[in-house]
Queue: 2 jobs
Job 1
Amino acid sequence: MSHLEQSFSVKFEYKIFFTSSLFDTGNPIFSDFFKGRPSESVRKIFFVVDQGVADTHPDLLKDIKAYFTAHQDVQLIEHVLIVPGGEASKNDPILFEQIVEAVNTYGIDRHSYIVAIGGGAVLDLVGYAAAVSHRGIKHIRIPTTVLSQNDSGIGVKNGINYKGKKNFLGTFAPPASVFNDDEFLTTLTDRDYRSGISEAIKVALIKDPEFFYWIEKHTQQLAQRDTDTMNYLIKHCAQLHLNHIGGDDPFETGSARPLDFGHWSAHKLEQLSNFEVLHGEAVAMGIALDSAYSFLKGMLTEEKLLKILNVLAALSFNISDPIIQINDQQSPILLGLSEFQEHLGGLLTITLLTDIGTGKEVHEMDHELLIKASAYVTAFTQHYTSQNTIKH
Amino acid sequence: MSHLEQSFSVKFEYKIFFTSSLFDTGNPIFSDFFKGRPSESVRKIFFVVDQGVADTHPDLLKDIKAYFTAHQDVQLIEHVLIVPGGEASKNDPILFEQIVEAVNTYGIDRHSYIVAIGGGAVLDLVGYAAAVSHRGIKHIRIPTTVLSQNDSGIGVKNGINYKGKKNFLGTFAPPASVFNDDEFLTTLTDRDYRSGISEAIKVALIKDPEFFYWIEKHTQQLAQRDTDTMNYLIKHCAQLHLNHIGGDDPFETGSARPLDFGHWSAHKLEQLSNFEVLHGEAVAMGIALDSAYSFLKGMLTEEKLLKILNVLAALSFNISDPIIQINDQQSPILLGLSEFQEHLGGLLTITLLTDIGTGKEVHEMDHELLIKASAYVTAFTQHYTSQNTIKH
């Protein structure tokens, strides 16, 4: 027996730019990105846009065309593909085919760019199609929701659903660049706007206590959609996510997923609600449940738990929706544990809290204690609602 | 304007093992691989086997089952998927679906393994399906042809064809491990056996003059299928390929593809022949053409060119098949230049020779000189054939 060994490292680098009015011809940031990477060949650029964004920004396509008439660093492909937003875009294999077909039709090569403008689901779909076309076409993300600007849109994962299973097909493929434009946030519904805050609360709870206390102090400004407050939240949350990804295991070869705090139940209840519950809303419910479980397990003080629940409630998250309630051992939410384990592969690994800002991994969850945790959150909500009804 | 920066490196490591009778229960090498990567969870292993290999090795599936009965490091999934071999396996999207479906049906997670046994095309198909399932299931390659053992099977690329375009969908995804078993080579046809030698000649011509002269000295043993000689050729060629991949640009972000020496015409003529010409045969023809072109361009001496053509002829490669002949500007082979450029993206970049063992990149090819190079190779073959007919 003999063998040869292969060993090499691949370096990945990209930037997340923060701006307003990205496609205003007077804004050089997008054009400068291409000027900073000169090329001897003609580079094409192809846009895929979330239907919801195109609807709420009726001038967007016109602005994009005007931008690339003024800035000819890359050659705009006139046809812009519009795809439905939300989870629907990841469920329909035809949309994947349409993007790959465009790569073929327009001769988009590995030196060209595919840009996605939209929420996290559209970015995931387009990122996947770009990653597997010609073994990887450069992909630029322009996230348009709070959730995608602070979390899903700035990371290295993409994917589509397959046979009803979330992200069954996908890759780890860092983007060429990300552009966060705060103007896109102005047209979000209150529900979409606020739901994106839960991932910031989540990452604060496992990584950064000061950030949690900052959020606690600013719930009112966030609820009132103050631009500067939200810009700070997004940028700080993005930095925490980048730090995590750039850590030990960017492509997640192990079983641990600390960033998935609160997510085992969230994934399940999104599915149980037929995705009527938004991802961020589901994560808020999952955070409440696993924080209450951490307290009942003796890991977290009740004082800290109540701080967490109060922040979620102050931001109007409905953390005791009947769909998240675990009333008995037959509750369908509990199936989320085994599905989460299958998704991770290997051992069940759940992150709980020992303090605000400190996560701890466990490998089993006590169903009876989860039933009690769910009841605790429901009782808290009843109390909170009655208190706040009396106050106002 | 402000921005955040992301930067990280991902390390990739794998081994290529050389053995005989891999699935003999007395051979510990495969079992040892799993013992060397202990895991707390149950790891499954799923096999996809090239139809041609299953046909010529009728005991293979039985041997695999016996092996995993004796060595229970991983849990064998009893169902083995058999897929057609050759380029057909990359043209049929149903086969991709079947592998993904198996991942779903058998609950194959990111800690489990998918093994492909077969020629390069089957390895490409299975590698792609594994790379995108759950964002990357560990993939083991067991190449069964000379070509895949010394070249395609040991690298980091996978892919399937789409709309008639080679490798239109695919990724860069290093395997978990590669096992080269020389027993698989014994059942190859002479044509398959010899065709794999052309990639060794190619890499020798651009990287390693001593290896070329070694091949020149051993053409007779290779033509007679001497096992030790072939084992040396495969291992040395594999090492040269690994060195190249592990160099500056493992995931080929630039335009240069020195390993594609002789390939721009080879890809086109495979397609023109409806893949009746084997890849290795096409590469031999492409090497002859671009070597003759290098001589006519004044880059390579005629003495060195003749050494190259003599080695190819001694190995019975038909380097002047009518299909590779370029008789005029309308020759369909010439379209291969623009298709190769599209495939690379960016500038046309062709590697030529300035010496045996030394490549040089050029960015244009003179069609008139290609017509002359083709005529040179044809005249050489006529002369070689008449000489050798007289001799014997």
Job 2
Amino acid sequence: MDDANLSGWGPALLSTDPEVMASYSRDQSRFTEHAMPVAVLAPRSTEEVAEVLREAARRGLAVVTRGAGTGLSGGANAQRGSILLSTHRLDSIVSIDPDEQVAVVQPGVITGHLRAAVLEHGLFYPPDPGSVDSCTIGGNGATNARGLCCGQYGGTPDFVRGLEGGLADGSVMRTGRRTAKGVAGYDLTSLLVGSEGTLGVITEITVRLVPRPAPPTTMLATFGTLAAAGTAVQQLTRAGTRLSLLEIMDRTTLSAIESMSPLGFDTGTAAILLAQSDDPDSASQVTLAADLCRASGAEDVAVSDDGREGDLLLQARRLALPALERLGDWLLDDVCVPRSRIVDLITSVEDIAAREGLVIGVFGHAGDGNMHPTIIYDEGRPDRRVAALRAFDQITARALELGGTITGEHGVGALKRGWLGTELDASAVRAHRLVKQAFDPRDVLNPGIAIPGP
Amino acid sequence: MDDANLSGWGPALLSTDPEVMASYSRDQSRFTEHAMPVAVLAPRSTEEVAEVLREAARRGLAVVTRGAGTGLSGGANAQRGSILLSTHRLDSIVSIDPDEQVAVVQPGVITGHLRAAVLEHGLFYPPDPGSVDSCTIGGNGATNARGLCCGQYGGTPDFVRGLEGGLADGSVMRTGRRTAKGVAGYDLTSLLVGSEGTLGVITEITVRLVPRPAPPTTMLATFGTLAAAGTAVQQLTRAGTRLSLLEIMDRTTLSAIESMSPLGFDTGTAAILLAQSDDPDSASQVTLAADLCRASGAEDVAVSDDGREGDLLLQARRLALPALERLGDWLLDDVCVPRSRIVDLITSVEDIAAREGLVIGVFGHAGDGNMHPTIIYDEGRPDRRVAALRAFDQITARALELGGTITGEHGVGALKRGWLGTELDASAVRAHRLVKQAFDPRDVLNPGIAIPGP
């Protein structure tokens, strides 16, 4: 351990102990690189964040910011010679305002804690990434996180009104507003949201809240063919059903769930749809949804307005990833396609899985076309690693062909940086580099992440 | 007329005739400067826009982009020696997709035309600026326009999914996506939306649509005191009533309306609230709203689920500006405050009006705190002009004091450029300049507009 690492960082220094640093050195992604940082810093205030940024600038060190490390694209992986700035000590809910329906929070607040705190004021913060009980609001903002609730409500970017952020030069900038509307100047808030630590370090977030919704009504529908499930999604969209959640799972995922925890799905089931409405008239919304599923060829349709029964119906969705994880090492992908092309994507994934000799389960948010093909492989077998990566690339390419995007909610990070230049045109790639240069001329904030490489 | 102006512009050249150019040389703002452009260009395609931008760069001319010229902050005013790029020939609705609920449109499409076109597909485009039947989607995007419908739905920025834009160097960039979600790279779409022609020229917009809502139920409530109206707004917010519209008008505005077109408001009425819900259960939402207004001290409350009657109740809101305009020259201001501070703002405006000897009517969007104090003055009397500007500055300062913003929906333009540096901190001002420099290093796109001056 180098003494130079210990001095000068002030009270923000958490550790330079290799074991501690190792536990902060990577997120939950696969196929991304990480290295040991030179120090883990955990500032307790905006001013301490600014000091860390100034000190890093003075030493010429890269800065990687980490929330809870639940990311899936390598955006919080420490880099060789970088410092690792953890936001976990910045964990105060600064204020909750029921009249303006906003909360002001520090970045290290766990998303689930914020959701619980605002509920006590009769308010609701909808974004609920899969890791909602461990991920942080700052990480959600930096990566543009979303979740199950996003069909009707939108994701993190739709809820962030304003930010405070530390910039590469150690200055602190406030963006956005507290009011419901405001158009004073460029929308730098939206620019920072989703910039994955490459433009600044979020030190405070102002999020809007909505009134606490009604208790939900839930529906589960099974389909004998993928095409019928696709028709149902189309009919639900066209009818304008107000669903707070609409999830799809394919045969592979269902079969993995049945192996782990038999829920009684027929082996002939090609896909299921799970829907929920928290509308004041949720019962009639879900009844309409159930009718449309039946008319589209659903085999079984169950509806419940009982909270506990609803949770049971949703259980299958919660088991999707744990069930697939049991089958081997996994690479959880994240693409988004137009809702009308979900079936095309799943069919293509089935073809790719067969061709590569892999198990790939698809589940995801049918309400917005955001699918999570989950590739199961054997990390210990180099040929299987290569096959997994090949499948990953083929799925990403197919999503683009279908008019989709390479990432719906997990972000670009290190994992998809090579793909970003394929989705964007040359002029947009150039604009990314110019924006990065404007905010971070010496390329110290999360270098090599999120923006297209040369 | 200089021959040099006529050659080289290609088919995009509309006119160099002074009379024609004069009609394109300014928007509807007051107290902003404008000059005669050197030419009015009206390209018919993205490629023609790019050619105009390249030719302007070659000649070293500034480019001011204009939609329908309905702006209220001088953002589309021609500048000395600039060309004026009008988008009115780019007026195609490229596609409407009922499955993905998106429309792709050229910037010159009239907002009202888009709204009518998507209704035929059972879809709804909510943003409805006051000028909805004459303003353009491109202008709405460039200025971040909103309108009456924004309490529940949000404004233009909440509906733009992707853009195509011509940049200062004549290249064309695509940003954003067509899918419901997508987080690939920086949110350059939001950066361009609201940038008032200073970063690029919007050549195509992809907007999301929502299902056509239910027929609305409407409420009008009158209040004897401003405080009672403020309490009602607070109660409506806290109760989470789902209102698609919630407008407030003050005594001065009501009195101007009564003078023009007597609707029978009592002279003791200090304020009215107008509410509308287009929820599936709009009747119960508005009944709840009416009960809350009565409990807050409303004097008369009228509710109707009849379309024609609802229109009659809304008539007062539509007459607000025309009625105030009859009283003299007018300066329509636009500030946004937290909803709980609307009454404080209106009270302050009353004080300012008394002090300056001016009539200032306040009406606006109570659902989001966006108020439009409208200053009536006599353009022919220099002292009254000065008083009007003084009142304008005092109102803007008061909005900031109350935790609000200098502009809720009209944009910064030329009118409020001097104020932007007061709302933003030094670091944010610097970030604005750096972003501008990154996109437009030679400062040719709407120079001197929207971003803080030195």
